[in-house]
# Entry
Amino acid sequence: MSDSLFAPPLSNSILNAIGNTPLIEIEPGVLAKAEYLNPSGSVKARMAKYLIERAESEGLLKPGMTIVESTSGNTGNAMSLVAAAKGYKMIVLIPEGYTSERTLISKGLGADVRHIGVFHVNEAKDMAIEMGKQDGFFCPAQFDNEWNVDENREWFGPEILQQIKDQNITIDAIVQGVGTGGTLIGVAQALKEHHNPNLKVFAVEPSESPTLSQGVVDMHKIEGINDGFVPSIYERHRNLVDDVILVNSDDAIQACKDLTAQKALFVGPSSGANLLAARRIKEEHPEVKTVLTFLCDSGFKYLSLLYA
# Structure
């Protein structure tokens, strides 16, 4: 038997499969973390596990309680996965107007899914926070909770640095679509502290709804980012972000289809948006040789949008 064979050790929980995703150079100078390979199908699996386990450790979440969270889809799936694995009841508050696949995934994982509002998460977010104040309930408050940033700085960022430590690579820029802002801010903090203090940091949002950069809220098709408001996480750390890049929804969808058909990376629209933004950074900033971005979620969550 070859000594090069490797398999994860025997485990008693699917939660141990979260993280350690591949870092792929999808084209010269563009590194992408394949977060769609997490058990819940997105980058949000890390946050869900971290927030729930930290709440347990601090006595905020106890056996028999119910977790309630607002979402545009991926966090609902991730929280539902972690709740099911740990034996908690889960209530997912999601607006109407998103692909049905993500709603069905949460239902399949045993969650009580309730539709609140249309497309933007504002109303669902407020309701989840209020429900979380009731006895027997816990709301992780993903858009506001600084633990979200902590997870990405303490777990996700170091994982990336471990993957490049022997590669003679310097990451010059990071770019990511903003849902909560936790991934962009937390990973950027880790990279600036331990890797490159001159790292450039770029946020991505839909050109049809430039909420971060212009305060405009409108409909778009890059589900999972730009949920109708500026998250307080992003607002608190806005000074870390060098610029916001606007990407058209249809262009993002085509880019994610190209990643699937040409590189066998079966990802969703936000991954396409991230790739287009990374290319633009390299074009407009010739000093940037290597950009880090993220393949945030799986194309299986968007079959009805992308391929029906």
